[in-house]
What does this fold into?
Amino acid sequence: MKLGQKNLDDNLIEKKLLIEKLKDLLIVDGSINEKYNEFKKIQNSWFKIGQVPRSQNVILWNNFQHHIKNFYDYLHLNRKFKEIDLDHNLKEKEKIIFNAKKLININDQFKALKDFERLKKRWKFELGPVKKENEDNLEKELKSIEEILNVKRKEFELNKDTILITNYNLKESLIKQIELLNQTEGKSIKNWQEKIKNFESIKSEIDLAGPIPGKLKKTFWNNYKIVVREFYSSKNIFFKNIKKIYSDNLKKQDLLIEEIKIITSKDKFEKERQNVISVQKQWKLIKPVPYKANEKNWKNFKNICDIYFEKVSQNRNLEHTKNKESEIKQDQLIKGLSKFDGNSIELENVCKEYLSINKINSEKEKLFFEKIKNLLIKEGFKEEESQIKINEMKSKFMSIDQKKSQVYKLNSNLEKLKKDLIQQENNLLFFNDKSKENKLLEAVHLKIKNQKSEIEKLINQKKDLLN
It folds into this structure.
């Protein structure tokens, strides 16, 4: 739409006022920096103002450029600022050359020339001069690009129908590529990242493929919109679902963090070890999770686990030290029994001291009470009486935990003996009346008798411990 005469006249007045401001810069007081900043504001304002009446355009532009030159000449230190402006203009014009060169490879000649005219207008009306040694080369390069674009435009006009059909066929083949892409299932974020990359690449090719016959435009763009809409719809559905999965998995991680806190806060570290390992395995199964949130949660979770395992390690070291100390003390008491010459009352005191040891080695315990038994026999006790005395001392001096452990061992032995007794009694069924003098039968009867005796002893030991 053309600008109205009133707008053109208003723009003319504004530009004339800017020229007057430019003139005033030569006579008003102020520092060079202030004047230069004001000068740049005037320049920027000029390029923002729209068109003026065509009859005034060239005169006004030449007048504006004349006073810009006067301003540079006026400044005593204008060289420094002029260099800055010249460098700025050079960089901007080099950018224009760079962007103009890219237009050569665009198949859409209408768009290429339109974009080139826009770049050329900025070159001419929005940017100032450059150094003389650069000016000719830049102008030649821009002109060379324009000539190439004009040649391509002429070639296009000569082969327009063929080119339009070729472009249409190319765009149709690219649409089919998007359709194939839509049929490819994206199961992971990585899959979708690859799909999006391919989609954007195909879409860019379609944009650069150039114009197509007018009669085919409507059909083409309808098909294009359908496949593009389908792609975006699938993408949105996937990422909407993945957000929900992310949210659910983050909640799972939070629950495991709370669970691991509760587990590791308990005093019995070693007993909870398998639970901690189980929770760690569960953590590894939670996928996918957003990278940053996962990194933060993992750091928190791992820190809790590390502290726990450090406590386990310290506890083991402490237990090892205690066990070592216990073994040394047990060895000392066992060794002391070899030189013992006291009575049964003093033996009780030794037994009491032995059973007060925190960790007792089962083999050393067996050796200790064998020596106690032998010493009691030396004191005049019979073997059976010695065992009863030992059982009494155990019952008297053992802690509750020690008694529980002892009862557990006795029950295990009883269970084993009872099973063996049943087996031996079943074996009797294989002997008949004629086998009464059989030595094997005698051996079975003897074994049954001994087992029953042993069972009775163990039962009595249990009774003594539990009394």
